[in-house]
Amino acid sequence: MPRQLPDVTGLPDDDPDDSVAHADGDRDPSSSDEFSGGYLGLNQIPLWEYDRIWRVVTASAKGFAIGAGLKGGLSLFSVLSGLRRRRSRPPSRKNELLLSNSEAAVMALKETIRYGLFLGTFAGTFVSVDEIIAALGGHRRTARWRALLAGAIAGPSMLLTGANTQHTSLAIYILMRAAVLASRCGIKSRRFGKYCKPLTWKHGDIFLMCLSSSQILSAYILKQESLPPSYKSFLNKHGGKDASILQGVKEIACGLPFTDLEAVEKFYQSTGVNVKLNPDMDIPCSIVHGNQSCSAHTFSFLIQAYKRALPVYLPVYLIPALIVHRKGLLERPCTILGKGLLGTARSSLFLSTYCASAWMWTCILFRIFRRCNIPMVAMGTFPTGLALAIEKKSRRIEISLYCLARAIESFFSCMADAGYLPKSRHLRRADVVVFSISTSIIMHCYALERDVFRSKYLNVLDWVFGVPPPPDETPRHKTSQFASG
Description:
This protein is mainly α. The protein contains 19 helices and no strands.
């Protein structure tokens, strides 16, 4: 194991001998006893003070690197995709697309810097507050609540991504992550263990995915405005259906008269398929897949969806490999890159199967009951979540929580639009409040309940914040040991 660096507060804690340490200001700092206690030569700077400052600086820099790296990598793939689309367009539109791509590149750069500042400020604020509280109140005396408070104070750094930019989806996702960690702590607890036992269900992640899919995919067809714009764009791309097709399915499911079946027919004609739609149809299979049978459509859609999914997961696997496995990448690049490519292929199969099965299950249900309505759409999209079984077990909970966060946001948006939930006029940035509460819980678990984290996340947190010393250990004692050793 790597040698753990001391995290020194330099102030008295619970040891009475420490309370008088360095109290005599007339002593020569160059003496061996004083020097081993931690002075940096001529500068007369205590080593523990230097360690505090260095921890803040490195945490801020590493946080910025992660935020800018992740956001920049995703933005880069988006810009490259735009450039690829520009080559396939006619020459008359290339100048227009060139301008839009330039604007997209500038916007991507701004977003990259904003997210870097967001995570850099979060990391720096957390470490700063953690060190200040430990210095004023003592490491051991404040260990039980210090990270909880520091995490809450660091939360508003989310505002650096844009004062008017709402991050409801991100806040709810982080809240779900905090809830998972809290539930793991509850399972360990003697007092709350029996109440948290249902959370240990083996396939609970797949069940959550099915619930989330029912809401998300129903909203994708029936009420897209309830979804975040970026996620709506993602679904429109991987859902693989033209807006006119979705509109036709929505109208028949809601019992509305068709407004523009001709647009659906024109869309299929543009793809070389001649379709004549019946305005009196009971089920929308001919709208969804034209002249194809339901089974043939499922297989052809699966192949197309897989091609669309591959570019999505390449940065998801390759960028973390550069951050988390940066040392191993130099020692065994083939092994790590091979696992990344295998993970990309597997996750792409999951996403393509998920999208293809959404249309498959709805078609099956429509044909069995010979009707299409809103409950049928919700029921047909529920088993779509079973596709999550393709993914690795370690990734299932991550994906299910990600989708659950968006499903919750969409559900409450639908409830608010229907008038069942009053909209708050006083709390404009509820996302910042939720994010701060969530980061407070997460950082508290990180400081005191480290075993509830998965190793890959713990490695990243340790790299950014430094390994926290145990609550019952005085950090300055470790300095003395290292200095004397």
